[in-house]
Amino acid sequence: LMGSRACVKMAAAAWASAFLHALLHTANTFSIPLCQGNTVEQFFCEVPPLLKLSCSDSYLREAGLIVVSTCVAFGCFIFIVLSYVQIFTAVLRIPSEQGQHKAFSTCIPHLAVFSLFVSTIIFAYLKPPSCSSPALDLVLPMLYAVVP
C-alpha cells in the first residue's frame, strides 16, 4: 500500500510538471506571429495547426517543444509502466484466484484506455506529412482527447 505522503508527493509532481509544460506551450503559442489569419480548422487549438498559420520560421520553436514534450511524455510513460509492473506483481501475490480476477478487472480497462491514448497520440504526432489529410487531422485529436 502506498502511504499518503508518497501519494501527495506524486500528485504534486504531476501537477507541477503539467503546469510547467502547459506554461511552456502557452508562452510559445502566444509568441507566434500569425499572418494567415487566426482561423484553425480543428475542434480545439493545437500547436501543429498554429504553426501552419505562422509567418515566421518556427523550426527551432517546434524542435524545442518536441524535445521537451518527448522528455515529459517518456518520463510519464516509464513511470506508468513501472507502476503497472508493481501492481501486477502485487496482484499475482493475492492467494485467491477470485481476488486476482477482481484486481485485474479493475486494472485492465485503465490499461486499455491508456494504450488507446498513447497509440493515437504517437500516430497523430509521428505520422509522416505525406499521409496527412484534413479529415485525419480532425479525427485523431478527437480520438485521443474525447474517447479516453
Radius of gyration: 19 Å
The SSE string, one letter per element, is: HHHHH
Low-confidence stretches: none
Largest sheet: none
Describe the structure.
74% of the residues lie in helices and 0% in strands. It is an all-alpha fold. The chain is elongated, with a radius of gyration of 19 Å. The mean pLDDT is 81. InterPro entries: Olfact_rcpt, Olfactory_GPCR. This is Olfactory receptor.
List keywords for this structure.
mainly alpha, elongated, membrane, 148 residues
Could you write a compact summary of the structure shown?
The chain is mainly α.
SSE blueprint:
Blueprint lengths: L3 H27 L16 H7 L5 H34 L4 H30 L7 H12 L3
